[in-house]
Write a structure and sequence with these properties.
single chain; 172 residues; Rossmann fold; 26% strand; globular; disordered N terminus
Length: 172
């Protein structure tokens, strides 16, 4: 994601992501999502994003859905942190495209900062879009990284989101 520099006195438009210094951590400053983003925020709640969570965003770029990121920040109630954040996080938004490298490596890296009950939302381009990651590649990479998929949803016009969690222990 390419961010615009924060300018003093500039009014923030809903869904706009601004790069601004935040003491003791790097973070995205996100304007409140537009009223039309209620459906996206509902989807994020369904995927497991809740108020009070620390959400890390990794792999975002020019083609990422800024409104999805803004809705995630609004739903969590705080700015998204980036890959340089050095504390634990409750959720990771992992944007991944076919040419981004090995998906297993990206998933393993995304697990490192997660809390015990943390979630990863793997965001990949939809079929037919540039950078689409085939479903069989995702199905193979997820368990190899020690995760399991719980649901896949449409995360916007160009992206699909797959909720990933660490498997629970054996049932008794």
């Amino acid at each position: 994601m390419r961010c615009q520099p924060m300018k003093p006195g500039l009014a923030l438009r809903p869904g706009t992501v601004w790069d601004a210094p935040v003491p003791e951590r790097k973070a995205w400053v996100v304007a409140a999502a537009a009223p039309g983003d209620e459906a996206v925020r509902g989807l994020l709640v369904k995927l497991g994003i809740k108020p009070g969570m620390t959400v890390q965003q990794v792999g975002d770029d020019d083609d990422s859905d800024v409104s999805f990121s803004a809705a995630a920040a609004t739903t969590a109630g705080s700015a998204l942190v980036d890959y340089d954040y050095d504390d634990v996080v409750d959720a990771v938004l992992l944007w991944h495209r076919e040419d981004d490298g090995d998906l297993v490596d990206a998933l393993v890296d995304a697990v490192v900062p997660l809390t015990e009950d943390g979630i990863i939302i793997l965001l990949t381009p939809k079929p037919g879009r540039d950078g689409h990651v085939p479903a069989d590649e995702i199905a193979e990479a997820v368990p190899t990284a020690g995760l399991q998929a719980t649901s896949t949803v449409s995360a916007g016009p160009h992206w699909q989101g797959t909720r990933l969690v660490a498997p629970k222990g054996p049932r008794r």
